[in-house]
């Protein structure tokens, strides 16, 4: 079975038991990948990605133990945050591109933002966070595949970008994030993860004070084992936990043409 053939095959999780089983299976895959490369499974955080699934299913995931959920779109995340505010220990990670006019919402409800790729967004977030009296964990998104359809900074632009971030004290920079090439071919996917790790090693030395590059968020349902072999500390997994999505992935990773005008 190739990498992404698995995707259509994940059955829908419809009970707490289904979620427990799927979470255990993913944790086992994480542990196996760690074992292969001599890593401690505790060094990899699983971020369950709940986009497109309804509140009822998110509540089942919560009952199965999920306390942090990843969402790609701000409006969808905010809607779910409001509907589920009775679960006071449930936190939200925004993992998709952000337009500056949505920074206010993210500053209000998110505990983590993984797709920082412009100073305009950094500035807007920082300003709104100061108003809210909050801080936010952020990851800088890097385009490691060279595809124009992917958001994220070009690898060679990241060093200068990091130098500018101490100006935004409400942002706690934790590391780098990437989406690999969407391909069934491991030989083309792995280099994206290698690039992110090497970039981190290179930039760590010169990172400004207060900017931490400990974390590497990379890998999803179809490719997270490869990402772990290459050093991922956060894997963002949706379909292997919730089941296959009806929505095409193009809805979340727009083509260059569909990119909003606010895009970089
Ligand atoms: C949807 C999404 C994921 C998870 O993808 P799955 O195939 O559901 O595991 C990971 N990262 C980002 C940015 C996403 O939008």
Automatic annotation (TrEMBL):
All residue ranges annotated as the Alanine racemase N-terminal domain in the record: 23-245
Residues annotated as transmembrane: none
Nuclease among keywords: no
Keyword Ribosomal protein in record: no
InterPro entries xrefs: Ala_racemase_N (IPR001608), PLP-binding_barrel (IPR029066), PyrdxlP_homeostasis (IPR011078)
PTM-bearing positions, type N6-(pyridoxal phosphate)lysine: 51
Family, as annotated: Belongs to the pyridoxal phosphate-binding protein YggS/PROSC family.
Function noted in UniProt: Pyridoxal 5'-phosphate (PLP)-binding protein, which is involved in PLP homeostasis.
PANTHER family assigned: PROLINE SYNTHETASE CO-TRANSCRIBED BACTERIAL HOMOLOG PROTEIN, PYRIDOXAL PHOSPHATE HOMEOSTASIS PROTEIN
Identification of the protein by name: Pyridoxal phosphate homeostasis protein
């Amino acid at each position: 079975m190739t990498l992404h053939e698995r995707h259509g095959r994940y059955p829908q999780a419809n009970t707490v038991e289904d979620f427990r089983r799927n979470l255990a299976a993913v944790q086992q895959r994480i542990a196996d990948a760690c074992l292969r490369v001599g890593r401690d499974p505790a060094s990899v955080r699983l971020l369950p990605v709940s986009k497109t699934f309804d509140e009822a299913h998110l509540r089942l995931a919560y009952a199965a133990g999920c306390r942090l959920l990843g969402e790609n779109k701000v409006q969808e995340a905010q809607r779910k945050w409001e509907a589920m505010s009775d679960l006071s220990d449930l936190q939200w990670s925004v993992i998709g591109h952000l337009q500056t006019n949505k920074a206010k919402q993210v500053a209000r409800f998110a505990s983590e933002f993984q797709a920082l790729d412009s100073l305009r967004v950094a500035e807007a977030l920082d300003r709104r966070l100061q108003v809210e009296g909050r801080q936010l964990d952020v990851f800088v998104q890097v385009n490691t595949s060279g595809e124009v359809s992917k958001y994220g900074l070009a690898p060679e632009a990241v060093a200068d970008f990091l130098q500018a971030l101490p100006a935004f004290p409400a942002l706690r920079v934790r590391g780098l994030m990437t989406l690999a090439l969407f391909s069934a071919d491991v030989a083309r996917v792995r280099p994206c993860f290698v690039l992110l790790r090497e970039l981190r090693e290179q930039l760590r030395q010169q990172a400004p004070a207060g900017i931490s590059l400990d974390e590497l968020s990379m890998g999803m349902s179809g490719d997270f084992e490869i990402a772990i072999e290459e050093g991922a500390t956060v894997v963002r997994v949706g379909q292997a936990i919730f089941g296959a999505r009806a929505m095409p992935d193009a809805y979340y990773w727009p083509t260059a043409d569909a990119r909003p005008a606010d895009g970089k």
